[in-house]
Design brief:
Blueprint: H1 2-21, H2 27-47, H3 52-77, H4 88-97, H5 99-134, H6 136-150, H7 154-165, H8 169-192, H9 197-205, H10 210-244, H11 254-263, H12 267-295, H13 300-303
């Protein structure tokens, strides 16, 4: 039943898209409204499948496909200007025709600025957390400063980093370091304090050193908190690098391309850059989540 409903909805939207591009009349919208109701029913049925993993995958995929189809039909049917909102077909065509530009921007922003800043920011936050945990007086002196740094607006620090590190990717990586440092610091400190007092007393009864207690008890207990920071920082790093490019960049980069093409009203290329950024951020987050499942398989949140 669900498969037949899905085939019906897919065929209906295919016909609606063809009809709206051919200039169909007002009667089309009654069919589109019916397709929207059938789509809602389909997504609900997919979400209620007994196979939990299958429903977690199929339901959002179906919902996303329906949103794209409705987007195409409404934008083309109501003749929305491209400068306001291009149709998905126009975005896909520009995406396919600008692969060299999009690849260059992806390398400049993601592979250079985002990954470098992400690794450095998380490593710095994790290392400082270990130091603060070992030297309690730093908690009173360093944490307020780190909290202040986390509250700095990106639009304020980005121009400063550009002046310090130049217009190329190192200044964007520096912005990413600032944005990712504090979440990792706070989450790691919370994770190091998460082990129970009974477990710590047991390690003391075995005459375990600080290093042994840290590696055998406290760090494993902190792993879920560390991965939470890594997942939070994954989209933050991409957002920070793109916004930082608004304030100075060489002739490549996602943020640079978005600002320049928006000024030229080439909104299809702007949306193509947004699609690439969203896909890169989603894949990045998914890889961190997979690493979390592999490293914390013992945790109740992973076993369920």
């Amino acid at each position: 039943m669900t498969a037949a409903l899905g085939a019906l909805v897919a065929a209906g939207f295919a016909l609606a898209i063809h009809a709206v591009h051919a200039g169909a009349g007002p009667m089309l919208w009654a069919g589109v409204a019916l397709l929207a109701a059938l789509s809602a029913w389909l997504v609900q049925r997919l979400g209620n499948l007994r196979d939990g993993r299958l429903s977690e995958l199929l339901a959002p995929l179906a919902f996303g496909a329906v949103v794209l189809a409705l987007w195409e039909v409404l934008v083309v049917g109501f003749a929305v200007p491209m400068v306001l909102l291009p149709a998905p077909s126009a975005i896909a065509a520009r995406l396919a025709g600008s692969l060299d530009i999009l690849t260059q921007d992806f390398v400049q922003t993601f592979l250079k600025a985002v990954l470098t800043g992400y690794v450095l920011g998380n490593a710095l936050g994790f290392g400082i957390a270990l130091l603060v945990d070992r030297v309690p007086f730093l908690r009173r002196g360093l944490l307020p400063v780190a909290n202040l740094a986390s509250a700095l607006p990106i639009v304020g620090i980005a121009p400063i980093m550009v002046m310090w590190f130049g217009f190329d990717w190192p200044s964007k990586a520096a912005v990413v370091v600032v944005m990712t440092f504090f979440p990792m610091l706070v989450n790691t400190l919370a994770g190091l304090a998460a082990s129970g007092s009974l477990e710590r007393d047991l390690m003391r009864s075995y005459a375990a050193s600080h290093a042994q207690t840290l590696t055998m008890l406290r760090l494993p207990a902190a792993l879920p908190f560390v991965f939470t920071a890594l997942k939070v920082n994954a989209p933050l790093a991409l957002i920070g690098a793109i916004v930082a490019e608004f304030f100075g960049s060489p002739t490549s980069g996602m943020g640079f391309r978005i600002t320049t093409e928006a000024a030229k009203l080439a909104l299809d290329l702007v949306w193509a850059e947004i699609v690439v950024a969203a896909a890169a951020g989603s894949v990045f987050y998914g890889l961190v989540a997979l690493a979390e499942r592999a490293a914390t398989f013992w945790h109740p949140s992973i076993r369920r």
